[in-house]
Amino acid sequence: MKDKFASRLKDLGTETAFAVSQDAAEFAAEGNKVYPFHLGDINIPTPANIMEAANKAMRDGKTGYNPSVGIPQLRNVLADLAGSERGVFYNRENVVIQPGGKPVIPKFIQSLMNLGDGVLYPNPGYPIYESQIEFHGGHALPYGFISSSDGFKIDRERVESLIGSNTRLFIYNNYQNPMGAESDMDEMEWVAELAQKHDLWVLSDEAYFEIQYSGKPKSIVSIPGMKERTVILYTFSKTYAMTGWRLGAAIGPEELMKVFARLSVNDESCTNHFIQYGGIEALTGSQSGAEVILNELRRRRDSLADILNQMEGISLFTPNSTFYLFPDVTDLYRHMEAQSYEDFRSKILRATGVSFCTREHFGTPLPNEDRKYIRFAYSGITVDDIEEGMAKLNEYQRSFNSVAAV
Ligand SMILES: Cc1ncc(COP(=O)(O)O)c(C=O)c1O
To answer: Disulfide check for 233: which of 4, 40, 104, 317 has CB 3.0–4.6 Å away?
Structure first.
């Protein structure tokens, strides 16, 4: 039967990280303890006031269809808040509510990319960009990053070498998954200049905009000339621990948002009705729940970073945002004589129970990459388990260091 499936499916990718979850689950089912650093999910409950608002809306009968662009109250508050946090003005015509942030990615591509158009996107990066570009017949142009004392920076030379006459879109994920890469003003202005010079549309994936451990986040839309050519991917998933609620939005130029609305009518009719009242409460109600989430994430980051920084064979830049660490594990990889990233991951899981994704889960390594990296997500694991898991990893890596020293 499989040969009867549509031929375009050959270009549809996936999140291969789900295979890691499955492997970890199988290992756990054999009676082993797993330390789950592979999940980009959050094991902290959604704040109670948000749950109550959604419950109340359900009891109040908000259970039917609603406008495909979302309920006006939520669009209004989101336009106000997202605009003021970014130093620009949006009104509700700029906001289309979506069932999560992820659906903004295919809608951006479907609305703006013609067959064969070039799309620049980060690699390592969120794997759905590449999947959607290729599925819709675009020309995937992955750009990489350079490790510096100030964290990971976009490889500007590579970006410039990739741009051609049919390059139309730039996907920009500041506060980045998986590396925690963050643009300084110079880099953000460079992206803006590039977009204006080459007349590119920008998808600004701001899934981690609010997950900041110090300082204030910046958005590319605040740079003059960018609001008009940028779509923000907004999501409630991370800030309010609402990953399973499926609530997000596209925020962008009004005419383009009309196209997104038409796609929404075709794809999902509307976003869940009563959930949107939870979203209003999230934005306008007490922020103490969001503070609890952020403080707990900070505690985990500090604990994990402290331990990793003391481990041999591993080096790390600690980002100020997201809930990921992306350590360089080249030395350990070599000492273990790992045959591949998958061999490295699987050996460590089986020896220690520590489960993580590798660089390869976020795209095929680019030709000039000579270092090895893995991603630790600390959103789904307690501080106690971070410490216990890292003690096991430390013991394991020491066994190789002592062999290497003989
Ligand atoms: C960079 C990035 N963008 C978008 C998303 C989508 O999140 P959601 O669909 O839950 O809003 C994620 C989720 O992990 C992400 O890491």
So the answer is: 104
> Which numbered atom of ligand 1 lies nearest the CA of 101?
11
Contact assessment for residue 213 and residue 320, using Cβ atoms and an 8 Å cutoff: yes
The sign of the CA dihedral 56, 59, 60, 66 is positive
101 Cβ inside 6 Å of ligand 1: yes
Distance separating alpha carbons of residues 240 and 384, to the nearest angstrom? 23
**Ligand 1 center to residue 3 CA distance, Å?**
32
Are residues 96 and 20 both part of a single domain?
no
Q: Is the bond preceding 178 in cis, omega lying within 30 degrees of 0? A: yes
Query: Does the beta carbon of 23 sit less than 6 angstroms from any atom of ligand 1?
Result: no
Is the beta carbon of 206 within 6 A of some atom in ligand 1?
Answer: no
Distance (Å, whole) CA 238 – CA 189: 26
Note the pLDDT of residue 404: 53
Backbone angles phi, psi at 95, to 5 degrees: -120, 125
- If asked whether residues 305 and 160 sit together in one domain, one would say no
Q: Which residues of the chain have pLDDT under 70?
A: 401-406
Task: Report the SS3 class of residue 373.
Answer: strand
How high is the pLDDT of residue 14?
85
Q: Residue 312's pLDDT is what?
A: 87
Give the C-alpha distances (Å, rounded to integers) separating 125 from 121, 175, 261.
8, 11, 27
Q: What does the pLDDT look like over 45-58, one tens digit per residue?
A: 999 999 999 999 99
Q: Domain range for residue 208?
A: 51-284
**What is the pTM (predicted TM-score) of this model?**
0.96
Minimum CA distance residue for ligand 1 atom 2: 207
Nearest ligand 1 atom to alpha carbon 105: 4
Where would I find the H helices in 249-361? Answer: 254-267, 273-284, 288-310, 330-335, 341-352
* Cβ(205) – ligand 1 distance below 6 Å: yes
CA of 155 to the centre of ligand 1 (A): 23
**Residues 109 and 236 occupy one common structural domain:** yes
Query: Is 321 touching ligand 1 by the criterion CB < 6 Å?
Result: no
For ligand 1, mutation pick of 39, 42, 104, 177 (most atoms within 8 Å of CB): 177
If one residue of 46, 173, 205, 236 were mutated to test the ligand 1 pocket, choosing by the most ligand atoms within 8 A of its CB, it would be: 205
147 shares its domain with 192:
yes
Buried b (16+ CB within 10 A) or exposed e, 291-320: eebbebbbebbebbbebbeebebbebbbbe
